[in-house]
Design goal:
three-stranded antiparallel β-sheet, 14 strands, 537 residues, 20 helices, alpha/beta
Length: 537
């Protein structure tokens, strides 16, 4: 429609007339005050845009070939929206009915996957042509396609988790090679059998003025990276004492490695579990509990196949169960920390380190932290920017459907992390933490292993309950072994980075951008590393 605009000479009237000028279409009385041309211009500009918007709204608000509103009707619908009022949905109700119905009532007739669009392209193609589907058929096809793709994605994700579990549960041949080479070196080379530490440094092992670190590991290369990174980043390496605890079979290779690769001026001690006279079956309840645990598990758990076959579990739940089944989580090395007061009767405070981490900063300030009488200094895992990693509470590990757990603990209580812990051994000796640990291990066996997920953190959460002092998250960054969302820049800003999870940095399944933070402490030109074909990538 063509329109004419008339503005009176006095600027007191603005009139919009149809092209033929029969009657006044819009008349605006401006008033006795002068009105600027600028105000008139902006008013007309606004009206022009408004009319164009209503035209576009009229054009797109169409479904199944039927216009849902006229130009004036659309303007009426636009009004409430501009005022913040709810605009009624134009999506046919039958679409909601089909998508929300959990039954198979609206499945595609025939039921085979071949009848279901396999891709978005197939789905769009099925909507073209003369026989366009009605809203109900559209919704049925859409739901069937999404359900199929969701199930396939779930299966692929679970298969990936299973492969990672298998890869992480086995020992790489390169690490086996390293242990064998060093065992041979220990047997044939006197320099590989040096007393560690040297006689003149032995007094430092019980001197509380030094910084004492404890590492329990049967992985020589992993232990080397932890010790090397610790000494390298220390501001006072001459005050660092590292106590490495290992098993009988790894003792000789471990001693050979640190004899031939000294970390001077730090002090390194290598001890095997059999060197502790009291650490024997019948004297240590954990050994008996582990034996019973393995028997019970083999009888009814069904292993990884049973976990993967569970169709009702979400993939991330299956991943957690598979991870907990890793041999590392049921290793005696993981239980060693509960006996630290007995293993080091002369020490007052130690920092316990797992073997799957890297130290990136001087850790001596940890000895200045006031523990307020608590035993365990640890980073909490329920607060932080990374919601995937830092969202763990007691309910993440303990089975609160069991009355023994629900009546003793709070499901929403914040969990904390093993891996880098400050232990006040003096305060620990005045508690019943170790006895509590034994008690709950036995209760779990009596309950058919139903009190918590597999692993050693759940009984640790219980035993240290009420004895934990929270430390700054800067000291311990977690999750580098099961998610790659952490950037290298963020990881480099932490004092200690922990590759907890399946993707250990010495495995091929490690995340490449994070693995380099670990490999920088491996000397790939070393003759033992080269002969066993251990490479950076």
């Amino acid at each position: 429609m063509k329109m004419q605009l008339h503005i009176s000479p006095s600027l007191r009237h603005v009139t919009v007339l149809p092209a033929k000028g029969v009657r006044e279409f819009i008349k605006v009385k401006v008033g006795s005050k002068k009105v600027s041309y600028r105000m008139v211009f902006y008013t007309l500009l606004f009206l022009t845009f408004l009319l164009r918007f209503v035209f576009v709204l009229t054009a797109v608000d169409t479904i199944d070939g039927q216009t849902r509103c006229s130009t004036i009707g659309c303007l009426k619908k636009l009004g409430p929206g501009m005022l913040g009022k709810h605009r009624q949905s134009t999506v046919p109700e039958v679409i909601y009915q089909v998508l929300e119905d959990p039954s198979s009532k609206y499945d595609i007739p025939g039921g085979s996957d071949a009848d279901i669009p396999q891709t978005l392209e197939d789905f769009v193609s099925s909507l073209k042509g003369r026989n366009r589907p009605d809203a109900k058929t559209f919704a049925i096809k859409l739901k069937s396609m999404l359900t199929l793709l969701e199930e396939r994605t779930r299966k692929a994700k679970i298969q990936e988790y299973l492969y990672r579990h298998v890869a992480s549960s086995s020992i790489p041949k390169q690490l086996n090679c390293l242990a064998l080479q060093l065992a041979n070196e220990h047997a044939t080379n006197a320099n590989a059998r040096l007393q560690l530490p040297s006689p003149e440094r032995v007094p430092t092992l019980v001197d509380n003025s030094y910084f004492h670190f404890v590492l329990a590991s049967d992985n020589i290369l992993a232990a080397s990276v932890v010790a090397t990174s610790l000494v390298y980043n220390s501001l006072r390496p001459d005050m660092v004492v590292i106590h490495i605890i290992t098993d009988r079979k790894t003792y000789s290779p471990m001693q050979a490695w640190f004899s031939l690769h000294p970390l001077t001026p730090a002090v390194v001690e290598i001890k095997a579990l059999h060197h502790f006279d009291w650490f024997a079956k019948g004297k240590v309840p954990v050994l008996e509990a582990m034996e019973k645990d393995q028997k019970a598990r083999s009888q009814f758990r069904g292993g990884s196949s049973a976990i993967v076959a569970e169709n009702t579990e979400k993939p991330y739940v299956i991943a957690a169960k598979l991870q907990a089944m890793s041999p590392k989580y049921n290793s005696l090395m993981n239980h060693v920390r509960i006996y630290l007061p007995e293993m080091f009767p002369s020490l007052n405070k130690v920092v316990f380190l797992d073997d799957d981490l890297v130290v990136q900063s001087d850790l001596s300030p940890l000895w200045d932290i006031d523990m307020n009488g608590k035993v365990n200094g640890a980073v909490e895992t329920c607060r932080g920017e990374d919601k995937f990693v830092m969202s763990k509470r007691f309910k993440s590990y303990l089975n609160f459907s069991h009355p023994l757990i629900s009546k003793n603990f709070n499901a929403n209580e914040c969990a904390w992390a093993y891996g880098m812990n400050i232990f006040d051994l003096e305060a620990w000796r005045n508690t019943n933490i170790t006895q509590n640990y034994h008690y709950w291990l036995e209760e779990n066996l009596k309950s058919d292993l139903s009190l918590w997920q597999l692993g050693t953190l759940p009984p640790g959460l219980i035993a240290f309950h009420g004895h934990v002092h929270t430390i700054d998250p800067f000291w311990h960054m977690l999750g580098l072994g099961y998610q790659e969302n952490t950037s290298q820049a963020d990881a480099q800003s932490a004092a200690v980075i922990h590759f907890n999870g399946r993707a250990k940095p010495w495995l091929d399944i490690a995340f490449p951008q994070l693995r380099t933070l670990w490999t920088k402490y491996v000397n790939f030109s070393d003759k033992f590393i080269k002969s066993c074909h251990i490479r950076a990538s």
